[in-house]
Amino acid sequence: MGELVAMLQEDELQGAILAVLANKQDIANCLTPAEVHKALGLEALRNRTFQIFKTSASKGEGLDEAMEWLANNLQQKK
Question: CATH homologous superfamily for 3-77?
């Protein structure tokens, strides 16, 4: 089990949603979202709301989408 998955099993984080930013998508040979999913061991997450976003911070791509998703999901939890 990866460190991220282990951390998410802590009592304080039960029910927390997770947005993963797969950054540097503008660079050749970067990890795909599927590769990030596998590398982080996210297949072990059950009953957890999470999403992986392709981002490029230097180009400002994908960040707004990720923040909007996060805000919408946090609002739904209220």
Answer: P-loop containing nucleotide triphosphate hydrolases (3.40.50.300)
Say how far apart CA 54 and CA 40 lie, in whole Å: 15
Cα distance between residue 36 and residue 39, in whole Å: 5
Residues that constitute the known binding site for GTP: 23-26
Query: Residues annotated in the binding site, as ranges?
Result: 23-26
The model's pTM is: 0.86
pLDDT category at 65 given cuts 50, 70, 90 is very high
Q: How far apart are CA 4 and CA 60, in angstroms?
A: 25
